[in-house]
Amino acid sequence: MNKIKKGDSVVVLSGKDKGRTGTVLEMVTKTDRVLVKGVNMVKRHTKQSQTSEGGIVAKEASIHISNLALADPKDGKPTRVGIKTNDDGTKVRFAKRSGDMIDG
Questions:
Q1: Are strands 9-12 and 63-64 parallel, antiparallel or unpaired?
Q2: Per-residue pLDDT for 100 more than 60?
Q3: Which of 3, 30, 34, 81 is the most buried (most CB within 10 A)?
Q4: Is residue 87 part of a domain?
Q5: Measured distance CA(102)–CA(74) in Å, rounded
């Protein structure tokens, strides 16, 4: 079970966007990288096509998963993630900072 999933709220721990928060848009499990909304923005020069206009476009670049921590559901500060097994055998994630359940 992964500690960070698509749709989670995360906090950046290091780099130029340290301290910023965003939601996970996409996981690239092969390279352990993540796309986070509004974090690690880069400018790309794009050519005009039938569907999109050309010019300089700002978009998110991937960030390594080790530079992210899940935001605690209670106070929004970075927390580590633990995994508990319920009585019925299902696994759920919980925030180690506050003990709150993240899903389930």
A1: unpaired
A2: yes
A3: 34
A4: no
A5: 10
